[in-house]
Design a protein that fits this description.
This protein is mainly beta. It contains 14 helices and 63 strands. About 10% of the residues lie in helices and about 35% in strands. β7 and β8 form a beta hairpin. The protein is elongated and about 130 Å long.
Length: about 1050
């Protein structure tokens, strides 16, 4: 890390060779070293708009920060020695570079040429040590005398080197290895940190022993304190009033096993130990002055952790941290899924921000964020963008992505509706062997109605409504639904046949899982318990997203429920649908009922393309233990117990002779469903991600003409789409439909019959009826969309957002409830004879089908050798297109409806399942994925965005006056003792020191000049930037010319003066006097 105290910019280097530059909130810049080697040290040229970086591959680079996209001006690659430490004094152009061999080389930062002046290790230590002193671990000049350089060697030797006389003035030896050294600002003392957890303070003129040895965390054990862990870095900062600060990392006692990494702040007699969440990589103390010879006045400490950046306020009691305004909390818990929405409703970001800003943030410093340099970019996207991330701990975060930098808007904790403390009795066979039982797996969001639905790894679906008002839910009402398999001859005698609809007269029961009649012995092992238990105590729900309904799949016969593979919601119809490898379930969240619970096999009806065995009600009966694997490793055929066809697939009637429905009602809303599905195939490993069922080798291929039962048993529901369209072939009327895509490439249609809006919507059931198969493709269905005859997308119907927790009287409440859902689909105003087109994309191909004739009019095979990981039908400025990300790293776009290839870029070879899991496209040419566990990478394939990008970038460098140097004072000026300056040019320049060996290091000019800008910028903005740089360079050259002219004039004046003096001297002399 490095900090420019005048510009107030922070630079962070990473293991992968990346540079992150941070200014004020909203100003951030990302750069990458081409070699990809780890950054080991950074040094700012303070207030110069430049930065020096040293890399693990022994190269040093100079970055120009005066342009919007920083670029390398010079590089120097060392060939024979390894770089271990760099130091650049304030307002100096000479960079000291220490090496592993113990030598110090000096580089001119302006020309990036090595000086012939070298400090050799043997000259530095002479006879003070018999062995090699080890690598250079520290270099710094005396704050009061630039001619004196302190050099710390790893073995424990410190040398005070006199640059002018080229010899060591003093040597200080200690038994323990040194990790870092820091000066007192008066230059009379320095402090060293050692590998045994001690700090030693030395007088510059004192020989032999340190004046003080401290073991801050060591326990006194008789004479000598016990040794501790190494103190990796120490800083020594003074204040005008009060005691100095000694700040260090590490140094804890060895017996503190399991203790978190700590930063210790010693101030006078008080010692504060600040625990960190992750290991400390580096820290810096931020001070008021850039001058090392003045009182430092520290006000904050920046601590770089492995996965976070923390800034501590030193001026407040208790050392609180500043609230971090950067989007660095993306991985506070690992990201498990994400979604990207461009062109959202304009009121959405303010609404999310208003509820997010009210979320309690206590214990932070009251002061402004101290890293405040740079200026914001002028441009901004003309449309709002939102990114939603789901995390392993069950949190969901909403981010404003409209500018270059993300800003967190709102954080939702989904885990708080579940009981975390499960009793021992509950655990038993339902113990979830998953470290993250609350992890988010899939998210469905309707930006217009603000309805949110999340599916977790524990086979649970939670539906949320957005509200600006706080509510407290008294008791969660559990509706436990259970389908039990019985013989027709012996119906379940113990279960009470009740009405399927919840009635107000249901008797309340005590909290806890209700007891259920069991018909087979395999239920005795906790067979119908969900993976997570919903809390029964009152739940206070803050403004923002509030739980409306929880649906859970439960364990069956000791088998965990299959994970949910697909999810969709429609706010106009009031339905949520989810599917897994066995089938799908449709939930009506307005009536709080399950409308449909159907196996994949039953979706086909009589149009089943597979050769499946016919089944009778008797055949579905499973004895206890019937879920065991066959000896040959395959599983028996799985079943869903479902409503029979003559029930028209709706929830109210319970006339199926072989299923009994048991309901236990507790009390008021919202409801929690426990949906039991009979699953007899083995569950994938817990915590598996939605795409993890794919081979990691990325070399599978699927055929669409599979006829074996084994293949059929794996047919999972892979995607859903709600739309108003022609349900059946030759239909003349538009009806609401649910389109279902499966992992074997089939698209099936379910027609919806919705009750009228208002009171009837609360009472009458929603009816779904299968309308047959639309089309079949190769590979799993990834995305479905509908367009009209003009090529415009037909969006799903939605209901506008309204406040669900209305506090007005009953009449107002009734008015809200009767509000008709608004369908924004333009198809309703079209002539009914006019066609629609369905766009379907699978892992291998895309097809466009004309409706209602159901004929395939366009077909395109996207890939033969690989397969598509993510496909989206997106809106561009000129029209629609299908955007695909392929497992071989290609990003492709196809025109709609013609499916002509528009773009094919070999962007990114897929090296990690994380990329496959998080890649998503959105409208207007934007896409994103997680490029590392902690970073979101946004990409664009839109020309408009590319042209606007230069304007959106912030300025890192702003012209600021360097503060005045500290006043020496009258007595120091009179008697000496102030800061001694040094003409380094005279010492290190080519004239005095000569040239360095050419084989030592190789100079590489960087692309940071005008040439680098040509590729970096495009369009008018780029031309302007180039013109501006050309003008700057011209101005610089004119300035240099002016300086040279002035120097020539001064020289001419001087010559004229000398000539005049000579003439006067010689004027009265005779010839013989010469």
């Amino acid at each position: 890390m490095a900090f420019d105290p005048v510009q107030k910019i922070l630079a962070v280097g990473t293991q992968s060779g990346a540079l992150r530059l941070f200014g004020r909130p909203g100003v951030e810049c990302y750069c990458q070293h081409e070699s990809g080697a780890a950054v080991i040290q950074l040094q700012f040229l303070i207030n110069e708009g430049a930065l020096v970086s040293a890399l693990a591959d022994d190269s040093v680079h100079l970055w120009n920060l005066r342009q919007k996209r920083p670029a390398i001006l010079h590089s120097l690659k060392f060939n024979r020695e390894r770089i271990t430490f760099c130091h650049l004094p304030f307002q100096s152009k000479w960079l000291y570079i220490g090496t592993e061999r113990g030598n110090i080389h000096i580089v001119n930062v302006e020309s990036f040429m090595l000086s012939g002046y070298v400090i050799m290790w043997n000259k530095a230590i002479e006879l003070s040590s018999k062995a090699h002193p080890g690598p250079v671990v520290h270099i710094s000049d005396n704050p009061m005398d630039e001619g004196k350089l302190i050099i710390g060697f790893e073995s424990g030797i410190v040398v005070l080197w006199d640059l002018k006389s080229k010899k060591a003035d003093y040597r200080y030896t200690y038994d323990e290895a040194i990790h870092s050294v820091a000066w007192h600002h008066e230059g009379k003392q320095f402090i060293c940190s050692h590998s045994d957890g001690t700090l030693t303070i030395w007088n510059v003129r004192g020989q032999g022993k340190p004046i003080q040895t401290i073991t801050p965390h060591g326990k006194e054990d008789g004479k000598k304190p016990e040794s501790c862990k190494p103190i990796l870095k120490v800083e020594y900062k003074t204040t005008r009033i009060g005691e100095p600060f000694i700040i260090f990392s590490g140094g804890l006692s060895y017996d503190t096993v399991g203790r978190r990494p700590c930063l210790t702040v010693m101030h006078g007699k008080s010692t504060a130990v600040l625990e960190m969440d992750y290991p400390i990589v580096d820290f810096l103390t931020l001070c008021e002055t850039p001058y090392p010879n003045d009182f430092q006045e520290p006000y904050a400490v920046v601590v770089l952790l492995e996965k976070d950046l923390v800034v501590i306020d030193l001026a407040q009691n208790g050392y609180p941290i500043f609230e971090n305004p950067y989007p660095l909390t993306i991985h506070e818990s690992p990201v498990t899924c994400c979604e990207y929405f461009a062109d959202c409703p304009v009121d959405l970001i303010p609404a999310l921000y208003s509820v997010g800003s009210r979320q309690k943030r206590q214990g932070y410093s009251k002061k402004e964020w101290p890293i405040s340099g740079g200026n914001w970019g002028q441009g901004i996207q003309s449309y709002p963008e939102i990114i939603i991330t789901g995390h392993a701990d069950g949190t969901v975060k909403f981010w404003d992505a409209s500018a270059i930098m993300l800003q967190v808007l709102y954080k939702l904790k989904t885990a708080k509706i579940f009981d975390r403390n499960r009793s021992k009795e509950d655990k038993g066979s339902t113990e979830v062997p998953d470290e993250d039982p609350f992890a988010i797996q899939i998210m469905a969001w309707c930006p217009e109605s603000r309805m949110l639905c999340v599916a977790g790894v524990s086979a649970n679906v939670i539906i949320y409504r957005f509200s600006k008002l706080e509510v407290t839910t008294e008791v969660l009402l559990e509706v436990r639904m259970q389908y039990e398999l019985n013989d027709i001859e012996s119906p379940d005698g113990g279960g009470e046949q009740t009405s399927a609809l919840p009635t107000p007269g249901a008797s309340p029961q005590t909290s806890g899982p209700p007891s259920h009649p069991s018909t087979s012995s395999n239920n005795s092992d906790g067979g119908n318990i969900p993976c997570l238990k919903v809390r029964s105590t009152p739940l206070k729900q803050s403004p923002g997203y509030q739980v409306d309904l929880v649906v859970q799949l439960v364990w069956v016969s000791g088998e965990p429920p299959q994970q949910i593979t697909s999810l969709a919601l429609n706010s106009s119809y009031g339905l949520v649908v989810f599917g897994n490898s066995n089938g799908l379930a449709v939930v009506d969240y307005i009536q709080k009922t399950v409308v449909l619970n159907l196996g994949t096999v039953e979706l086909y009806g009589s149009n089943d393309p597979y050769q499946r065995q016919p089944r009778s009600p008797r055949k579905t009966r499973q004895p206890s233990g019937g879920n065991k694997k066959r000896e040959d490793g395959s599983q028996k055929e799985k079943h869903f117990i479902l409503f029979s066809e003559h029930d028209s697939f709706f929830f109210c009637q319970n006339s199926s002779p072989h299923s009994s429905l048991v309901l236990v009602l507790n009390c008021a809303l919202p409801l929690c469903f426990f949906l039991l599905t009979v699953l007899l195939s083995v569950c994938p490993p817990r915590g598996a991600n939605p795409l993890d069922h794919r081979d990691n080798s990325f070399s599978r291929s699927r055929s669409s003409s599979v006829t074996s039962i084994d293949k059929e048993a794996r047919e999972a529901i892979s995607s859903f789409h709600f739309c108003e369209t022609f349900a059946r072939k030759g239909d003349s009327a538009l009806t609401p439909c649910l389109y279902v895509g499966t992992s074997l490439g089939t698209v099936l249609v379910l027609a919806l019959t919705l009750p009228p809006a208002g009171e009837q919507r609360q009472l009458q059931p929603v009816i779904l009826s299968p309308a047959g198969m639309l089309v079949r493709l190769k590979g799993s269905i990834l995305r479905m969309a509908f367009i009209d005859s003009t090529g415009s997308q037909l969006p799903s119907a939605y209901e506008p957002w309204y406040e669900p927790n209305v506090t007005a009287d009953g009449e107002e409440r009734e008015k809200v409830r009767k509000r008709r859902p608004v369908s924004v689909s333009p198809s309703t105003s079209q002539d009914l004879n006019e066609s629609q087109y369905a766009v379907v994309c699978s892992e291998k191909q895309a097809k466009v089908i004309a409706l209602p004739s159901q004929t395939c009019i366009y077909k395109h095979s996207i890939t033969e050798t690989s397969f598509i990981l993510r496909a989206d039908v997106v809106q561009m400025n000129q029209g629609m297109c299908v955007a695909c990300f392929c497992a071989n790293g290609h990003i492709m776009t196809l025109s709609v409806p013609g499916l002509r290839p528009l773009m094919d870029v070999n962007y990114l070879p897929l090296t990690d399942m994380r990329i496959a899991r998080t890649f998503c496209f959105t409208n207007l040419g934007q896409a994103m994925y997680l490029c590392s566990p902690t970073e979101i990478q946004r990409i664009t394939y839109s020309q408009d965005t590319c042209e606007n990008l230069q304007e959106m970038l912030g300025e890192l460098f702003t012209p600021v006056e360097t503060p005045e140097a500290p006043n020496r004072g009258f007595f120091k000026g009179l008697f000496g003792g102030g800061a001694q300056s040094l003409d380094r040019e005279e010492l290190f320049g080519e004239v005095a020191a000569g040239r360095a060996s050419r084989s030592l290091a190789q100079h590489i000019p960087g692309p940071g000049g005008i040439e680098g800008m040509k590729g970096a910028a495009s369009g008018v903005v780029g031309d302007l930037a180039r013109a501006r740089i050309a003008l700057d360079e011209r101005g610089q050259k004119l300035g240099e010319l002016e300086e040279r002219t002035a120097a020539m004039m001064a020289s001419a004046d001087s010559f004229s003066k000398h000539a005049h003096e000579m003439m006067l001297k010689c004027k009265d002399k005779k010839w013989y006097q010469f």
